[in-house]
Design goal:
heterodimer, A: 112 residues, disordered N terminus, B: 12 strands
């Protein structure tokens, strides 16, 4: 199992631990990536910023220009805010998921 | 900004239409659909108006048209649609149309009458021949003379004069349901001195209804004068058709032949009549539709002309109409064009107006549905900020927050896409089903709602209630298992175990897009999701409401009420943000700063918030940030201090302004022009707010400034705002409630139906066959419960949030729409 491969604790601590294949079953292990917080924030802020702030400059002139600009800005604000709330709520969890023992067995061997 | 931001400028114009060209001008205006006429003859009854005769003639013509249309429909034909672009006919054409219509109607009536009469005659002939025909059946003379001898011993009747045993006959036809009764009555009344035989004939066409009706023919043979009279009376009573019946067979055959000849001739005549009828109907089909359009337009023009007043010289009609400023050049041109044909010229000029103009917001087919849901609450006052352009995005977004599921959102999006792509097909456009038309009218709305639902579904990580692990989960079970020494034996004993974020390596960071998929496996997922969704609802709610208050700024600026910026908007913002903005700050601060390490002693935002209002503190609840004990009371005091500002600020300011104007007016009593500088300001201001009846000078007839009314209005506004802040923020929690309901329903459906079906044991073949009805049940319930019911529910709640919580911060909705005089038939 994974515990045998990386003796207790060393590879679980916020590091990237890649192994090519599981010793026993021969299936490739998913990389245990630590999720950074800064990278998604930068990516999504840039993405919605492009849509909401840069987008309006490229809307062609016409009778509907005002409406389209309003739509772009509102979409960017709403979607960005919603995503931000979701990620901030999970940034510092105060408690973890409570799993059934069957789930623990299954996840232990399948996801990791 | 685009023209949807606020109503277009609409002005009152006065039209001088010379009588010679009035009809043509108004007809042209009707084609263009630019102006809304004001009724200048409101005090005059409909029967005393100038053009009442013409209107009445048009109405009579329309009655005749209705008759013609009914005849066409009865013949089973349809009227073709008229071609577009038919102008209203000239008044002198009305006479010609009237004559032709009357002639057509008369012809039709005559032909119909003839046809009816001929058919009745034919029916009689057919009955007669049927009656005569049946007489060939049973042999007559012999059996009939034998029969009565056997049946009745009373043949040697007491009456001497009845020596003649000659048998007479009565033949006729009777309706089948009366036949039995007739037979019984005959038997009882005549005591066996007759023999009646009834026979059914094949169905003949009934002349009145045109449907095949069966008749029964009877042949009664009797002897005796009195019996004969009785029989005739009985048959009369039963409304039978009685025909003369000759005993000799040759005579009968000759009569039958004659009858058949007659009926053949009659049928020919009938055929000719019907051919003529169809000719007439063909002409009606051709001529009626354009006439109908033309007369409708003519009537509309006369009704519009009735609203104009006559000038003192009786040479021209004066009309007052609302017209958009942008359309004024077109209006000029149209009037010039129509009136120059008659050699005169019509004049148009703007006049100032005290009344509030109607609101005109031009929409295209995309924005029309969003403007429609805003107008359903109330059409905006003239030139106030229109919430529709923001509603285009926020309404589908709030819907999606309550509906978030990738699978359901995708289905909704595809359905709407199908409708949008098929929107130009004539079959779709002319469908009559109410429910379909409702859905079709909101297709762009559904499109956006579906699209946003897919997005929020990804954030909630729900696709038909199943989570997808697009990125690897941020929670590591292995780390927890290793660190806590979860052996297999230990796991077998403990049914439930928690992952502790404090243990190193268990929590690897927040999931980059949405909710971590591990939560869908957790037993306590609702604890986490509830906390997340409640906080999300409050944040979205406070943001939405603040946006509403900020939109009010644009109203104040446009109507020149700068004092309201300082005396209303600022206190409102301080109140809202000082209390609920602070709550949002607390939520965000706790999310960012309180880590799992201090989870056991984590401060409770709820307790802090309650204590803030009670000016107390709980010793067990540690402060979130240093200085919190100072900040909170300060904010509460500041917010409470804003209440009297909101309550008294505007009324006192207006009172002071009014007094200043009064004193100024008293000093310069004969300078009317002094008021002209303030006039545009005051008239704009008076259009903008109800309570500012204090016009400044120049408006002698301006309503007086009633201080108590203004105070009352402001008090209501203050109470509504302050209490509303609290209740409206709580109202946004429906975002949490409905999304929870949707998630739970969808999970139940999945677990009980689909998962049960998928986890059936047995061989592949059996499981596959069983899956078909299981999936059918799943699909039907998904569409019926989750898409239709939950969709309607979320739609309703999102609508309520917009109408009440958002719009009552800035929108009054007490205006009326510009409904131009147009010939286009409304399809609404």
């Amino acid at each position: 199992m994974l515990g045998a491969h990386c003796p207790g604790g060393t590879c679980a601590h916020r590091s990237i631990c890649n192994s090519d294949s599981h010793p026993g079953l021969g299936i490739p292990l998913r990389a245990m990536t630590a999720h950074s917080f800064a990278l998604p924030v930068i990516i999504f802020t840039t993405f919605w910023g492009l849509i909401g702030i840069a987008g309006p400059w490229f809307v062609p002139k016409g009778p509907n220009r005002g409406v389209i600009i309003t739509m772009l800005v509102a979409t960017a604000v709403c979607c960005y805010l919603f995503w931000l709330i979701a990620i901030l709520a999970q940034l510092n969890p105060l408690f973890g998921p409570q799993l059934k023992n069957e789930t623990i067995w299954y996840v232990h061997f399948l996801w990791e | 900004m685009g023209s949807m931001f606020r109503s277009e400028e609409v002005v009152l114009v006065q039209l001088f239409l010379p009588t010679a060209a009035a009809y043509a001008c108004v007809s042209q205006l009707g084609e263009l659909g630019l102006v809304e006429f004001r009724d200048l003859n409101a005090s005059v009854s409909a029967f005393q108006r100038r053009f009442v005769v013409d209107v009445r003639r048009c109405e009579e013509l329309e009655k005749t048209f209705a008759f013609l249309q009914e005849e066409v429909r009865r013949a089973g034909l349809t009227l073709p649609l008229p071609e577009a672009g038919l102008p209203a006919p000239l008044p002198r054409d009305l006479l010609r149309i009237q004559e032709e219509t009357d002639r057509l109607a008369q012809e039709l009536r005559d032909v119909r009458g003839n046809q009816q009469a001929l058919r009745a005659q034919l029916h009689q002939l057919q009955l007669h021949s049927a009656v005569l025909g049946q007489g060939h059946g049973p042999p007559l003379a012999a059996s009939h003379t034998d029969g009565p001898l056997e049946r009745s011993p009373l043949l040697q009747s007491p009456g001497g004069p009845h020596q003649d045993l000659r048998v007479n006959f009565v033949a006729g036809a009777v309706e089948p349901h009366k036949a039995a009764a007739l037979e019984r009555l005959l038997w009882r009344a005549c005591r066996g001195f007759l023999i009646a035989s009834f026979r059914e004939v094949e169905p003949l066409e009934d002349p009145v209804t045109g449907e095949p009706a069966t008749w029964m023919t009877f042949l009664i043979s009797y002897w005796g004068e009195q019996i004969g009279q009785k029989i005739r009376k009985i048959t009369d009573c039963f409304h039978c058709h009685v025909f003369p019946f000759v005993e000799q067979e040759e005579a009968r055959r000759a009569a039958l032949q004659q009858l058949q000849q007659q009926s053949q001739e009659l049928q020919e005549v009938l055929g000719e009549t019907e051919r003529f009828l169809s000719q007439v109907l063909g002409r009606v089909q051709r001529l009626l539709p354009p006439w109908q359009v033309q007369i409708r337009k003519m009537k509309a023009v006369y009704l519009a002309l009735n609203q104009c007043s006559v000038s003192t010289t009786h040479k021209c009609l004066i009309a007052e109409a609302w017209c958009a400023t942008r359309d004024l050049p077109t209006l000029h041109q149209a009037l010039q064009g129509s009136s120059s044909e008659a050699g005169v010229s019509a004049v148009v000029h703007r006049i100032p107006c005290r009344d509030m103009p109607p609101t005109l917001i031009r929409t295209n087919r995309f924005t029309a549905s969003f403007q429609g849901i805003v107008d359903a609450y109330g059409v905006g006052r003239y030139q106030e900020v229109n919430p529709a352009p923001y509603t285009i995005i926020t309404f589908p977004f709030l819907f999606a927050v309550m509906f978030g599921d990738v699978g359901h959102g995708l289905l909704m999006f595809l359905f709407a896409l199908a409708m949008v792509l098929a929107e130009n097909r004539p079959a779709v456009k002319t469908a009559q089903n109410e429910i379909w038309r409702t859905f079709f009218g909101g297709r762009y709305l559904l499109l956006l709602m579906g699209l946003f639902s897919v997005y929020t579904g990804f954030i909630y990580n729900e696709c038909f209630s199943c989570a997808t692990a697009v990125f690897p989960s941020g929670w590591s079970v292995a780390a927890m298992a290793n660190q806590s020494g979860w052996s297999d034996a230990f796991l077998a004993q403990q049914p439930l175990l928690s992952l502790d974020p404090n243990v190193t390596g268990v929590f690897l960071g927040p999931y980059p897009f949405g909710i971590d998929p591990v939560w869908s496996l957790a037993v306590n997922h609702l604890s986490f999701l509830n906390s997340f969704k409640m906080k999300m609802s409050v944040i979205l709610g406070v943001t939405h409401m603040t946006f509403g208050v900020v939109l009010g700024v644009f109203n104040h600026m446009h109507f020149g009420q700068w004092h309201r910026l300082l005396l209303e908007t600022l206190p409102e913002l301080v109140f809202l943000l000082g209390l609920f903005g602070y709550l949002v700050f607390l939520v965000a601060y706790k999310w960012l700063r309180v880590t799992a390490a201090s989870a056991a002693s984590a401060p409770s935002i709820l307790i802090h918030f309650i204590n803030m209002f009670l000016f107390s503190s709980s010793p067990t609840n540690r402060p979130l940030f240093s200085g919190q004990e100072m900040v909170q009371p300060t904010l509460v005091v500041l917010a409470l201090a804003m209440v009297p500002v909101l309550l008294l600020g505007t009324p006192l300011f207006l009172h002071r302004e009014h007094r200043r104007c009064h004193s100024r007016r008293r000093q310069q009593p004969d300078e009317d022009t002094a008021g002209l500088l303030d006039l545009p300001d005051a008239s704009l201001a008076s259009q903008g707010s109800d309570e500012e009846k204090a016009g400044c000078p120049g408006d002698r007839e301006e309503a007086e400034f009633v201080l108590s009314e203004v105070f009352m209005h402001q008090a209501i506004h203050t109470i509504e705002f302050c209490l509303g802040c609290i209740s409206n923020t709580a109202s946004y929690l429906r975002l949490w409630a409905l999304s929870l309901a949707h998630a739970q329903l969808s999970q139940v459906l999945w677990a009980m139906v689909m998962r049960a079906g998928l986890s059936l044991g047995g061989e592949m073949g059996v499981a596959a066959v069983v899956l078909v009805p299981v999936f059918a049940a799943f699909a039907v319930m998904t569409v019926a419960i989750l898409l239709v019911m939950e969709g309607l529910s979320a739609f309703l709640h999102a609508l309520r949030l917009h109408w009440v919580e958002f719009q009552n911060k800035f929108y009054s909705g007490t205006g009326y729409k510009l409904s131009p005089f147009t010939f286009a038939v409304e399809d609404e």
